[in-house]
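Regression check, acetyl coenzyme *A case 430:
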Amino acid sequence: MQEALEAHDGVSKGKYTIGLGQDCMAFCSEVEDVISMSLTVVNSLLKKYNIDPKLIGRLEVGSETVIDKSKSIKTWLMQIFEKSGNTDIEGVDSSNACYGGTAALLNCVNWVESNSWDGRYGLVVCTDSAVYAEGPARPTGGAAAIAMLIGPNAPISFESKYRASHMAHVYDFYKPDLASEYPVVDGKLSQTCYLMALDSCYRQFCNKYEKIVGKQFSISDAEYFVFHSPYNKLVQKSFARLYYNDFMRNCSSIDDDAKEKLQPFSNLTGEESYQSRDLEKASQQVAKHLYDIKVQPSTLLPKQIGNMYTASLYAALASVLYNKHDSLDGQRIVMFSYGSGLTSTMFSLRLNNGQHPFSLSNIASVLGVTEKLQSRHETLPEKFIDTLKLMEHRYGAKDFETSRDTSLLPPGTFYLTHVDSMYRRFYDQK
Ligand code: ACO
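Current build output:
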């Protein structure tokens, strides 16, 4: 619980819960890591949707959690497919901070749309453990893995023509110390880079839409906006920023009251606009009613789990599917993916109810978000910090056994048993 962490860290009450907008945070126990989590989600997806492992033709993993500098996480996942005799699976890992999952997803979607497609499914896995050194970034950690099946006639389809990216060279968050799992973070710079990338992607996205559709795009043209969520406050600021963009572009969707409140900021330079606290406040206030409708449904899992790095954006999408599955037919969701360093893409999804087992209602029921959240175990801050210390010690280490304590893991979960003297990692399934 972020509330307990505030008290433990001795920061002012509300700093993590209101200031960052986070409720809870997940972390890997000493028997789990990004490989065990990805084994669990792939196995679970194949089982719950009754997919023959032979039907997977491409498997892509997005992650920024380095366990091995050469061997991809994808190769560990091959254990699941080798058993059924399927070794003919393209794809490896993609990495660039929180963007690797999106790179993996675009690769898979492009493959299904290409001449190389052999008629089988693509599978995308996003898996990360987000841990930070002691300090203000630590409460923005999290951990999760997500698996997504890619194929034709899906209930969620890409409107690929409007896809827009912004890529640049910056040092906002990076992991140059290969002996440590922790990133080097310039927190303030990373926030500004995120918002600048958002502006740039939105501008390009709108231009592309306008060229193809012949009318202006504004936030009223999508039912939901789903953002990469390092912490919820940045998501609130991001939607307000899109609203401010629409105001500056004279979109008819901006009402007179909002125009009046944003008018004092109409002459700010781009740079000034990122630094203006007054603009931040005014735009969040005028966008609030639309935030509640178009963004809030996506915030459930990110607020409860924390930053999941590559999985964050897709956990936010899963939250919309879970919360709104019975009213999504025909609707549009705009997604914004950001990875420090930096790489970012805005893209658009169109939804339809779909056919069983891939109907939105079945996907929502398989997700079982409420039950999963309710079955979590609460850990005291002291135990969380002890675990991080143990993991610091084990990072890059060889020749150790884990406790093999699976008492907190649901049946079917994979877990790490030991790492041998050759650094080879071994997993078992509960
Ligand atoms: N009650 C309510 N709000 C509070 C309280 C309180 N008691 N105390 C502070 N706050 C508010 C602040 O006013 C501020 O709000 P604002 O952003 O609306 O101004 C907010 O809490 C954060 O507090 P700060 O003092 O500004 O920042 P802090 O030193 O805690 O650091 C930061 C926050 C920079 C986000 C840090 O957690 C960090 O570096 N995180 C990792 C980097 C990151 O996630 N970047 C995002 C993109 S890159 C990526 O995805 C990794």
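Comparison notes: The longest strand covers residues 121-130. Residues 187-213 form the longest helix (27 residues). No diff flagged against the previous build.
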